[in-house]
Amino acid sequence: MRRSLRQILRLATAPRVVRRAAGMALIVGHVIAVINHGDAIWHGTMDAPQWAKVAVTFLVPYTVSTVSSVLAVLERNVPRDTMGDMDANAKTHPTRLGL
Questions:
Q1: Rounded distance, CA 57 to CA 31, Å?
Q2: pLDDT band at residue 63, thresholds of 50, 70 and 90?
Q3: Nearest-angstrom CA–CA distance, 91 and 85
Q4: Nearest residue to 17 via CA among 67, 75, 58
Q5: How far is the C-alpha of 68 from the C-alpha of 63, rounded, in Å?
Q6: Which is nearest to 87 in space by CA: 76, 97, 77?
Q7: Strands (DSSP E) along the chain, which ranges?
Q8: How far is CA 55 from CA 40, 41, 47, in A?
Q9: What residues form the membrane-spanning segments (predicted)?
Q10: Rounded distance, CA 10 to CA 8, Å?
Q11: Residue span of the structural domain in which 56 resides
């Protein structure tokens, strides 16, 4: 079952997916930013490259949440009788998820 890039992008930019991913990015991104850069932020020694890294820190949970949501929607639309085969094949062939 092949999915088109257009369908995947439509799912990834759906308002519910974007809201969920943004919420996760705000929560998890802050936690990771404080863990990785808290001392420099606290002491006011952050420079431009470090702030760029903080921005990327927020993109990671956003991306993970978006991909997870898209895969969940795609998996939900797969007939139940093929789920066992899909799960077994996905362990060695991730492209068999229908993407």
A1: 10
A2: very high
A3: 10
A4: 67
A5: 8
A6: 97
A7: none
A8: 15, 13, 13
A9: 21-42, 54-74
A10: 5
A11: 5-97
Q: Whose structure tokens read 């998890």?
A: 28
Query: Per the structure, how many domains does the chain have?
Result: 1
Q: What is the mean pLDDT of residues 39-55?
A: 94
Predicted confidence (pLDDT) at residue 81 exceeds the cutoff of 50: yes
Q: Are 68 and 76 in contact (CB under 8 A)?
A: no
Q: Distance (Å, rounded) from C-alpha 8 to C-alpha 67? A: 9
The position carrying tokens 């702030």 is: 51
Distance of alpha carbon 85 from alpha carbon 98, whole angstroms: 12
Place of tokens 């760029």: 52
Residue from 29, 28, 10, 26 nearest 70 by CA: 10
Write the burial class of residue 97 (CB in 10 Å: 0-12 exposed, 13-18 middle, 19+ buried): middle
